[in-house]
Amino acid sequence: MHIDAIRRWARAAFASALLAASAAACSPPITVTRPAPRRLAVRFEGARASLDLGPPLDPSEADCGACHEAAQRQWERSLHARAATDGVFAAAFRHEPRPSCLRCHAPRGDVARGVDCETCHVREGWVIGARRREGSPHRGPVDPSMATVDACAGCHQFDFPDEVDLGLEPSNAAMQITLTEWVASPAGAEGRACQSCHMAADDRGSGGASDHGFAVMGRPDMIRGAVAFDVEARAEDGATVVEVTLRAHDVGHAVPTGDLFRQLRLRAEASDGARVERTYARRFAPEPIRGHALFAALRRDAEDERLFVDEPRRERLRFAPGVEVEVTLAHLRMPAAVARAIGVAAAVNETPLYARRVRAPDP
Ligand code: HEC
Ligand code: HEC
Ligand code: HEC
Ligand code: HEC
Ligand code: HEC
Fold this sequence. Notes:
Number of helices: 14
Number of strands: 13
Bound molecules: heme C
Strand content: 15-25%
Shape: elongated
Radius of gyration: 24 Å
Number of domains: 2
Helix content: 25-40%
Structural class: alpha+beta
Order of helices and strands: HHHHHHEEHEHEHHHHEEEEEEEEHHE
């Protein structure tokens, strides 16, 4: 499906929201001097509800980028900005085009803007932040939860679309479980929010402001920094034994986290052509739903073989004696076969992380 088709989907899904918005646009402009509500509505409910930003912003506040240049520039390059236009999403959406996808990938119904400033920062007609900054023209309430995982939770943990679209009871598995992983991680125990790693002020002249690039894909250094990789070879019982140790550290969730298809792929190839492969991913098993004969494919968490912080994973791989073995580790957005099937190029899908050559020392 071409991007225009995605736009048509978006228009269909959000026709009612757009109607509501245009009706509101006809009412007299609201000035930022009106009294702010004491409490704001729930931040974001992922796919389960449409996003309602309330009355239109004061026109003087509407062009965020005019005053927040750095945030604007960083956001423009982010996957949040391209959440509904990036090729990988577009390929998957073509395969499974559900309106509920766009509730998160373009919550305001504007495919070209994806997850934009307003999605995160505007509620009930007010610009909101975790605290009031010096010189701020904004007059709405502050919302301390912007500095917590609540700002991310509704989109980064959610149930399978069947459950959302059919109103079924949530299963014991969710499509993404980054929040659950965070709660169980040392970062969760210390209350270190997602922002502390994903929005840490960069040193590219941002003047200490939060980084709005949220970048992980296209940053092998960041993924590499979260996985220690150790490879040793030795001669044992007339074979070459390669021992690989993987350990997740300095990360606030499993590695990989996020999209259900993400995986780490370990590959060992010996000079005689022998090859071993392991993947670390979530694996799902279909389970029938009572009373829903048509929808028997609801997925349940069968196994979770990803890396968890400070729980090292050891693999012992056996090869012929005397061979040299090349061991590589890569991050995959989705299994190679799925990428091929939906037309995502291997170079886009795979981020190489490590490559080591080892040979057992002579005994
Ligand atoms: C006319 C200039 C201007 C416009 C337009 C503007 N801002 Fe601001 N904003 C500021 C200034 C100045 C501050 C305080 C200093 C800073 O943080 O940059 C601020 C502060 C903020 C803060 C921190 C909380 C606070 O109130 O101090 C947030 C969040 C924010 N702006 C978001 C936005 C968003 C989102 C938009 C667009 C919907 C926007 N701003 C439009 C000038 C503007
Ligand atoms: C995915 C959610 C998200 C998006 C999209 C987003 N922001 Fe933010 N923004 C945050 C969070 C979280 C903070 C940190 C908490 C705080 O200080 O309010 C923040 C902080 C800010 C601040 C306060 C100053 C600072 O840097 O800490 C400004 C100003 C701001 N954002 C402007 C923008 C603008 C302009 C856009 C669009 C170009 C934008 N934001 C898009 C989540 C978002
Ligand atoms: C409105 C929904 C929404 C909210 C709120 C949201 N995100 Fe996202 N986020 C997304 C979507 C959708 C993507 C995937 C975009 C894609 O890859 O097409 C994403 C991607 C990401 C990525 C991966 C980017 C990359 O380069 O791989 C990170 C990291 C991230 N978000 C962090 C956060 C954090 C931290 C917060 C809270 C401050 C947050 N998000 C709030 C929807 C959201
Ligand atoms: C202690 C630092 C830290 C904290 C806290 C943290 N992250 Fe991450 N995150 C990372 C690192 C490092 C990576 C790259 C390794 C990886 O992909 O797991 C990452 C990757 C990601 C990705 C991309 C995963 C992929 O493979 O597509 C998403 C999405 C994400 N984080 C969301 C979140 C959310 C949401 C939270 C809060 C609930 C959070 N992170 C908390 C460090 C952190
Ligand atoms: C509740 C919010 C939500 C819903 C609903 C949702 N997604 Fe996502 N999606 C996300 C977030 C958050 C990420 C980022 C996770 C990461 O980076 O690993 C993401 C990532 C993805 C990715 C990976 C993109 C990349 O850059 O590699 C694809 C593909 C995707 N979603 C497709 C879909 C499709 C198709 C649907 C509908 C069937 C859908 N999503 C529904 C929140 C959502």
